[in-house]
Design goal:
- By secondary structure, this protein is of the alpha/beta class.
- It has 17 helices and 15 strands.
- The chain has helices at 3-13, 33-42, 51-55, 70-73, 79-82, 88-103, 129-137, 151-155, 159-168, 183-196, 213-222, 261-266, 296-310, 330-341, 355-358, 365-379, 393-396; strands spanning 18-27, 30-31, 47-49, 62-64, 118-124, 174-175, 202-209, 252-260, 273-282, 319-321, 350-352, 381-382, 409-410, 415-422, 426-433.
- Strands 1, 2, 5, 6, 7, 8, 9, 10, 11, 14 and 15 form an eleven-stranded mixed sheet that branches. A two-stranded antiparallel ribbon has the order 3-4.
- Helix 6 (88-103) runs parallel beside helix 9, helix 10 packs across helix 16 (365-379) and helix 13 (296-310) packs across helix 14 (330-341).
- The chain starts with a helix and ends with a strand.
- The relative contact order is 0.18.
């Protein structure tokens, strides 16, 4: 092949359109896509009280943990895989990922041929902390080799992608990313770029986060979690509310099958939405940004660059699924959106935060919230923000209160912007469109 022909071929690859053909979710208020969609429409909270947190001296004794029976686990992992298994991060990720793959119309067969056209980028923040603690507890410093043969795969950061890649037989890129609360949205955009550039036909993307006390305990020690609603858990997570008192921890996983439009059409796949583009950047912990706080300028640039990459105007955005964690930074996030979009007051898009219903699922947040965003497009609705009857005064000064719906709205939704902002001053924004 001549050099000129190679260049033309690469140029054609760059024009690949990317669509979403499968979804999977494990969330505190619904396990499985149907249960989750019904829950977010109804404004159903998945936040509950956990006696173990109180017994351990936590100030925040509530959280969102998906309900999964032992029988349910056996639908996804074999008895052999579950032997000595103690990693909810991997479990949640495998469940969401397998569901998304099946939802896209593919089968799961351990004897299937290796699929070089399909890969996965599945992120997590921490993996198998409970397993590591369990293993270490049984040994002393003289018996380190007795950690056990199952400890490595459950505690290595790439454990989730290793499990899923083997179960599904993917031969393309199989990897794990980790960028704090930005992880899921970043994974999606990394998979999007791979298909867009012609390096894969399909990418399973998503993220998961465990429900370990050893993850949540650190945040409780930082005093960033709500402690005022231990007696009324469903009222605890209050994004954009004047009475917000910190985030409520959550856990779970979200997964999306991204596919080239050409591949999806060739097999007559269901198309949930199109990924138009997006952007990933960092504030560099400069200009007000720190390890735990965002650089506002970088956040705004992330949003505006995502809009440019998607080749749309800010006026075309119908709804925003924000990061909005129910902390003091909610007002700043709204301000950043108004500046990035140059839209405020009654001209601002609808905005919601699924964290009001399920808490902050940390590394899994971006993926679960992306699933919610896509379902709003597919079924044409805006899910309600619960616990936001008392909108924060600083937010009221920026946008009209009716842009923060507290009840389900059924209306035409064409374009949704989803953003995530994480510890380390990292940002990601993706633009979804109705296909």
């Amino acid at each position: 092949m001549k050099i000129r022909e190679i260049r033309v071929k690469k140029s054609a690859y760059m024009k690949n359109r990317v669509v979403i053909t499968g979804l999977g979710v494990v969330a505190p208020n619904g396990v499985g896509l149907s249960a989750f969609t019904n829950a977010i429409k109804a404004g159903k909270s998945g936040i509950t009280f956990h006696q173990e947190l109180k017994d351990k001296g936590f100030s925040c004794c509530i959280g969102g943990i998906p309900e999964i029976s032992e029988e349910k686990k056996l639908e996804y992992l074999s008895p052999l895989q579950l032997r000595g298994f103690n990693s909810t991060s991997i479990l949640y990720g495998c469940m969401a990922g397998i569901d998304a793959w099946k939802d896209a119309g593919f089968s799961v067969d351990e004897n299937s041929e290796l699929d070089y056209d399909s890969g996965l980028i599945f992120g997590t923040g921490t993996s198998g902390i409970e397993k590591f603690r369990e293993s270490i507890y049984k040994i002393d410093d003289q018996n380190v080799r007795r950690l056990g043969s199952t400890s490595v795969v459950q505690t290595m950061a790439s454990g989730i992608s290793a499990y899923l890649g083997g179960i599904l037989g993917f031969g393309n890129q199989v990897t794990t990313n980790s960028s704090a609360c930005t992880t899921g949205t970043e994974a999606l955009l990394l998979g999007f770029e791979r298909i867009k550039n012609g390096k894969a036909k399909r990418m399973l993307v998503g993220s998961s986060s465990d429900s370990s006390l050893y993850t949540w305990g650190g945040f409780d020690a930082m005093r960033v979690m709500s402690y005022k609603h231990n007696d009324n858990p469903e009222k605890g997570s209050r994004p954009m509310s004047e009475t917000a008192a910190g985030f409520v921890p959550g856990s779970g996983a979200g997964a999306l099958v991204l596919e080239s439009l050409e591949s999806a059409l060739a097999r007559n796949a269901t198309i949930y939405a199109e990924v138009l583009g997006g952007n990933i950047n960092s504030g560099g912990q400069r200009n007000g940004g720190t390890l735990t706080a965002p650089n506002a300028e970088a956040v705004q640039k992330c949003i505006t660059d995502a809009i440019i990459d998607a080749n749309i105007s800010a006026d075309e955005i119908d709804a925003i699924n924000g990061h909005l964690t129910a902390t003091t930074k909610d007002s700043l996030e709204i301000e950043n959106w108004t500046k990035a979009l140059q839209r405020k007051g009654a001209d601002f898009p609808f905005i919601n935060s699924i964290k009001s219903q399920i808490g902050h699922c940390l590394a899994a947040a971006g993926a679960i919230e992306s699933v919610a965003s896509v379902m709003q497009i597919k079924e044409q609705f805006v899910f309600p923000n619960i616990n936001c009857e008392d909108v924060h005064p600083e937010i009221k000064d920026l946008i009209a209160v009716d842009k923060i719906p507290t009840k389900l709205i059924e209306k035409e939704i064409n374009i949704v912007a989803k953003a995530s902002f994480g510890f380390g001053d990292v940002n990601a924004c993706v633009i979804f469109k109705k296909y």
